């Protein structure tokens, strides 16, 4: 994946993985956050608190919020129907909050992106490549290790809620592989969160050692006969596992690799903030029964 010529001469672009912070708030915020109809609003309240803190701390005018439109209709489901099949459908109470979260972010003048065939990861990947090619460093605001693969030399991966902001070298220490190796790593180990099987018997330590030696999954398979001679426990059986499951590994990599050319994002990639729709935001917050403190933060952020 091209990392481009990003430099500190251009302001950073912040790309926010909305789902991570909406889900976190859904599980962690108190249940007494409800609107006048008694419908939960805790996830959108928590998400907007994170968003306001991010805007207040960075003062950025270059930001995008990426949403997942569906967990069952992405192009990955066409490749592998069992992709994310282990996840329970989102309850209606949470689906409503995703919609409210997007409406609130748009009313705040923030650029929001969603696509029926591509996930938020792919939208972030597309925008990252687009703006990096124009000289901007990228900051991916997420807690998802998958998105580490987008981080180049001048970029950061930022789990904002946990105050963990890492560059590419720090990510390599955290995850045991270079950012550009993350898609291959997940293809080899599998990813239980997304129901991607990977290569049976290849765990994180083996995958990290293999990629540390060979550099990429392609090189592992081109030099497969060398695996048995590596100083890895069970190297001979590991070689056989890789050989027997090459098709599975290559399928998995199609699922773990983030797309960077989503047409809907490229058709309107601008990220500059618009004016706040104060009337629209107030109407939404009235409907959600949100108080003055968050309302004022959202209007000022």
How does this structure look, described?
By secondary structure, the protein is α/β, with parallel strands linked by helices. The protein contains 14 helices and 6 strands. Strands 3-2-1-4-5-6 form a 6-stranded mixed beta sheet, sandwiched between helices. Helix 7 packs across helix 11. It is elongated and about 65 Å long. The two termini are 34 Å apart. The model has no long low-confidence stretch (mean pLDDT 94).
Mean pLDDT: 94
Order of helices and strands: EHHEHHEHEEEHHHHHHHHH
Our measurement of the CA-to-CA distance between the termini, rounded to an integer number of angstroms, reads 34 Å
Tell me about the largest β-sheet: 6 strands, mixed
For this entry, what is the oligomeric state of its chains?
single chain
Strand elements, count: 6
* Strands side by side in the biggest sheet: 3-2-1-4-5-6
Radius of gyration: 21 Å
Percent of residues in helices: 40-55%
Number of helices: 14
Give unreliable regions as ranges: none
Secondary structure category = alpha/beta
Estimated share of beta-strand residues = 5-15%
Give the tags.
alpha/beta; 301 residues; single chain; 14 helices
Break the fold down into its secondary structure elements and pairings.
Layout (H helix, E strand, L loop, with lengths): L12 E5 H11 L13 H17 L4 E4 L8 H5 L12 H16 L3 E3 L6 H13 L5 E4 L14 E4 L4 E3 L1 H8 L6 H8 L14 H11 L2 H6 L12 H10 L1 H11 L6 H4 L11 H11 L3 H9 L1
Parallel strand pairs: 1-2, 1-4, 2-3, 4-5
Antiparallel strand pairs: 5-6
Helix pairs in contact: 1-2, 2-4, 4-13, 7-8, 7-11
Briefly summarize what is shown.
The protein is α/β, with parallel strands linked by helices and 301 residues long. It has 14 helices and six strands.
């Amino acid at each position: 994946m091209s990392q481009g010529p990003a430099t500190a001469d251009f302001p950073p672009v912040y790309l926010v993985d909305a789902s991570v912070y909406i889900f976190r708030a859904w599980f962690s915020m108190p249940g007494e956050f409800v609107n006048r109809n008694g419908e939960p609003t805790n996830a959108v309240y928590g998400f907007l608190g994170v968003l306001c803190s991010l805007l207040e701390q960075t003062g950025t005018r270059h930001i995008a919020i990426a949403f997942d439109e569906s967990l069952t209709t992405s192009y990955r489901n066409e490749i592998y129907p069992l992709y994310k099949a282990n996840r329970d459908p989102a309850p209606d109470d949470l689906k409503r909050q995703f919609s409210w979260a997007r409406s609130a972010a748009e009313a705040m003048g923030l650029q929001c992106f969603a696509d029926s065939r591509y996930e938020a990861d792919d939208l972030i990947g597309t925008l990252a490549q687009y703006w990096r090619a124009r000289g901007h460093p990228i900051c991916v605001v997420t807690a998802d290790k998958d998105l580490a693969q987008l981080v180049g030399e001048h970029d950061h991966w930022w789990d904002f809620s946990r105050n963990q902001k890492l560059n590419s070298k720090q990510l390599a220490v955290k995850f045991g592989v270079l950012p550009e190796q993350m898609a291959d790593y997940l293809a080899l180990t599998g990813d239980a969160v997304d129901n991607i099987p990977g290569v049976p018997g290849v765990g994180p330590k083996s995958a990290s050692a293999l990629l540390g030696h060979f550099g990429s999954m392609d090189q592992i398979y081109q030099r497969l006969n060398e695996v048995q001679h590596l100083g890895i426990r069970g190297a001979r059986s590991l070689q056989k596992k890789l050989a027997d499951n090459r098709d599975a590994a290559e399928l998995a990599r199609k699922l773990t690799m983030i797309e960077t050319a989503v047409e809907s994002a490229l058709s309107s990639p601008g990220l500059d903030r618009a004016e706040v729709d104060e009337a629209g935001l107030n109407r939404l917050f009235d409907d959600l029964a949100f108080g003055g403190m968050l309302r004022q933060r959202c209007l000022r952020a």
